[in-house]
Amino acid sequence: MDVMTPRRLRITLKTIRALIFISLLCLVLFSTIILSIVLYAKWLGPPSLSVPQSTLIYASDGSKIGELHNGQKRYWVDIDHISPHVREATMAIEDRSFYQHDGFDYKRIAGAALADLKAMAKVQGASTITQQYARNLFLEHEKTWQRKANEALYTIRLEQNYSKDRILEGYLNTIYYGHGVYGIEAAANYYFGKSSSDLTLAEAAMLAGIPKGPTLYSPYANREKAEERQEIILKMMKNEGYITEKQFQSALTAELVYKKKTDTVQPKLAPYFQDAMLSEISDKLDIDAQAIQTKGLKIYTTLDADMQKLAEETVGETIDESSDIQTGIVAMDPKTGYVRALIGGRNYEESPFNRATQAKRQPGSTIKPFLYYSAIMNGFTPSTEMKSEPTSFTYDNGKASYKPSNYNDYYANDFITMLQAIALSDNIYAVKTHMFIGMEELIKTGKLLGLSTGIKKNPSAALGTSPVRLIDMVNAYGMLGNGGKKVEPTFVTKIEDTAGNVIYESKQEKEQVLDEQAAFVTTHMMKGMFDTTLNDYTSVTGHSIADSLTRDYAGKSGTTSSDSWMIGFAPQLAVGVWTGYDKGKTINLVQERGYAKEIWSTFMEEALDDQSVKAFRPPDGVVGVYINPESGKLATKGCPTKRLTYFIEGTEPTEYCEEHMSDGEASETEQSSDQKEKESWLDKFKWWD
Fold first, then answer.
1. What domain range is 97 assigned to?
2. Of 264, 287, 302, which one is at a domain's C-terminal end?
3. Extended strands (E) in 100-210
4. PANTHER family this protein is in (predicted)?
5. Among 196, 365, 425, 601, which one carries the catalytic annotation?
6. pLDDT averaged over 10-residue windows placed end to end, the chain, 689 residues
7. Beta strands 643-648; 563-570: pairing state
8. How deeply is 423 buried, as exposed, middle or buried, from its count of CB atoms within 10 A (0-12, 13-18, 19+)?
9. In this predicted structure, what is the pLDDT of residue 399?
10. How many Cβ atoms are within 10 Å of 303's Cβ, its own excluded?
11. Which residue is catalytic, options 67, 88, 94, 203?
12. Does 246 reside within a domain?
């Protein structure tokens, strides 16, 4: 038997003491490191939980009309709004001791390490929900020691600064469920067409199994594998006491009804409107489109979903399918500038080019109301007469000439009033007016009305040869209709961030930019295009749709060789329709020339069908009198046509139409004139006294 000598005993004791000291030192060092990491994590504070989220878009009635997700569908919902079955199924399969550990499950880590050692390969994972959440939030998925260290640090920071419920909420809102879908809310909608709060036990177990391998366990990718994993999860839920045997059997045999794959890709409502809306937000908030799509915003728009559908249906029912003609439509509230419906083309998938907001086209005679407003501001009245006959105009100090013509070369070859000129769309009268008041006047009015493309200084500008945008024209007509108050085309009323804070709200001061009286006089004249009693050497331009209209509208049509326009408004709604070809092709078919008016009249009548009939109310400072539209003078009983016409007070006609006046009426008129003269003299006398 080997007896230990005192010397060997002393050496052994020293060794033991050294080992104990080293062990204690290592323990202190390890504890210090751990404590330092924990304190450092605490000092860093809570990490941001913000992640890219889908931006939701709502119509004016609060209904959802679309979403923006940049290829990743994401929504965020509070944990209280997630089905308990989802929470329990997820914990059962991913982290059974989630509420007990501090971010790391050391028992699972040891077990996984032993299993990997035995298999000499990575066969088992031990990541907790907190670790997975940290990885999803902050880290790339490369397998390096640095990434592992960062993951541990983020895990500690999450556990130190957030409650377990908040961590679980974040995890469920960020985990990937396949097919570009992130988060349980998006997954519930994508697979089952419902909210995550409404998921059944069977549905929750199915979804909880997908994140393990989305390409393997998605029911769309592999129904058999998905159902096998669903059964495993249900068993684990039963073993953990989350569900009973009865619930297990019921869920196992429940038939799941998935959304059809064709249902998961809904056609975007009002795609041209949504593009224009994004452009508006980008300009006003100074953020790019990609940021808008991933900030989880709630965008409340001006779109009237019913009007939008009506516009699309009207186009589809009016334009022949075989025709290649294009169209643009804008419907707007003239009092606010809110865009209620917008179409930028016949097929967004084939051509996303927005003809309502991007295309610049010659407006033709739809420019004339702005010209006649300018004329009224320069002393013209609806009774002002000029001769309609072939005319050659010289300009630029006689260096250039311009000879316009009327449609089909029809002329009155006589004097006509401004009231007739706008209703019959007489080009000679328009150019004469333009030249008489000065070509710069139309340019000034165009600027006041927000025509951003500008009007060129030449005689033909009176006939709409300077290109404009449809949306600008509709907005300008709306300003005439609202009494001359400035509005701008508006697509968004409000934007909220993910926390519900309002970060943008539309506000318009509605500055008075036009003369209210002149705007009303112009508006009232614009009703003439639908008044067939004004037919003369040619028909009023709205004669083809006049019989289909049941309320007061003011409007103007316009044509060029490649464009057909119809713009008009009621007190509640301004609508513009353009039809034409993209690449310079001319409109030759009679049927195609009528599309714009037909679409406009059909849409207007149906869009306002459930609204009360409103008339254009004259403001103070205007006077309405009945005139003979041919002469512009006060109508008598014998005049075949009498029309109520408004004038700025003090500019109304005082002479009666003598052509159809009887002897008795002439005598009464003379007496009336004498009386007015006496009253006028008496008023002056009283003032002088």
1. 82-264
2. 264
3. 181-182
4. BINDING PROTEIN TRANSPEPTIDASE, PUTATIVE-RELATED, PENICILLIN-BINDING PROTEIN 1B
5. 365
6. 62 73 70 57 54 80 79 77 95 89 68 52 61 68 55 74 88 84 89 94 95 86 91 95 95 90 59 89 68 75 96 97 95 97 94 93 98 98 97 90 94 97 98 97 97 94 97 98 96 88 86 97 98 96 96 97 97 98 88 96 97 95 96 94 96 91 54 38 30
7. unpaired
8. buried
9. 87
10. 29
11. 94
12. yes
Distance, in Å, from the CA atom of 496 to the CA atom of 498, rounded to the nearest integer, reads 7
Region of residue 321 (left: phi > 0; alpha: psi -120 to 50; beta: else): alpha
490: buried, middle or exposed (CB in 10 Å: 19+, 13-18, 0-12)? buried
Task: Tell me if the pTM is above 0.70.
Answer: yes
Q: Answer yes or no: are the C-beta atoms of 384 and 395 closer than 8 Å.
A: no
Tokens of 558: 């316009």
Asked about 313 being catalytic, the answer comes back as no
Q: How far apart are CA 660 and CA 151, in angstroms?
A: 97
Is-catalytic flag, 672?
no
Would you say residue 302 lies in a domain? no
In a domain, 201, yes or no: yes
Among 264, 294, 317, identify where a domain stops: 264
Residues whose CB falls within 8 Å of the CB of residue 125, separated by 6 or more in sequence, listed in order: 112
> Do strands 298-301 and 55-58 pair parallel, antiparallel, or not at all (unpaired)?
parallel
Question: Do the domain assignments include residue 662?
Answer: yes
Could you give the number of structural domains in the chain? 2
Task: Indicate the burial class of 532 (C-beta count within 10 angstroms; 0-12, 13-18, 19 or more).
Answer: middle
**What secondary structure letter does DSSP report for 2?**
P
How many CB atoms neighbour CB 275 within 10 A? 21
Task: Answer for the pair 534, 419: CB distance below 8 angstroms, yes or no.
Answer: yes
Q: Report the candidate in 325, 344, 326, 329 with the shortest Cα–Cα distance to residue 272.
A: 344
**Which residues pair with residue 645 across a beta bridge?**
625
| 3-class secondary-structure state, position 186 | helix
Given this model, what pLDDT does residue 429 score? 98
CATH number at residue 135: 1.10.3810.10
